[in-house]
Amino acid sequence: MVISVAGCGRKTESAPALTPALAKIRFQTDWFPEPEHGGYYQALAKGYYATEGLDVEILPGGPNAQVMSSVAVGRADLGMTNGDDVIVAVARGVPIKMVAAEMQRDAQGILFHTAHPVRDLRDLKGRTVMAGSGSTWLEVVRKKLGVEFNQVPLVGDLARFMNNPGFVQQCFVTNEPFFARQRGADVGVLLIASDTYEPYRVMFTGNEFLARHPDVVGKFVRASLRGWADYLTGDPAPGNKLLAARRNDLPPEFMAYSIKAMNEYKLVSGDPAKGEFTGQLTAARLEKQIRLLQEVGVLDKAVAVSDVATFEFIPKGQ
To answer: Whole-model pTM?
Structure first.
């Protein structure tokens, strides 16, 4: 904006152009800063959010992050979590909605010692599994696949796993296998996602924020997906530098391992043979997930795809 001031016998002077203020956005992650959030940090480090007119603050999570409730009540504007958790929350009356996929399939897996392999979820029969209480995949294995196993609560270390060759535990394929191997264990990992159970990891926002600021949501999605593509296929150094500055226990070799795993499992990019691409959500797949969650009894009430997701911000294909 240029403002001119004219006076008798004076030269017309122009004020400096004013830069429009950036829209402040608070984005809540589900855990402490880590490479599984790398696309967002890449977008922040390389100015992709600023290019869209956004001033994004990434709020780190942790064991008690309560991402969905934070977004629902406005402590954060957007967040990320497992897509099935959003469906379950919406069925319980939480006013949130998915706006894009962060990952085409969730990165959760089963960590096992290769001496006692887990080649399929049915191999969990009779085993002791350390897993997060309330995890939807546990109900799928029990009620959909008919597999019974002993469950113990998930704790944030590998001590019990390392001391028991027959033990298996829930993990992220991008994380715990690296540290178990670093400690000398010969381990394998099975991705939980399958044709039966294949949740997205998603970006979501509150219904009120979405209704009031659809343009901002669209800009955030666009910049975030650009950050993810750049982080996984370009030079991840800017994002990694920002991650390391915010968390000092992320060695470079671990970050390289996580990026490699995300690419090898096609977690973010999806499988082109299935028509998948970064950011994609499909109504058909969400409908399938809703039916499965109803079948295993984790939904408080029936929900429609339109209740849990909007598709207006999804890229139109690759």
So the answer is: 0.90
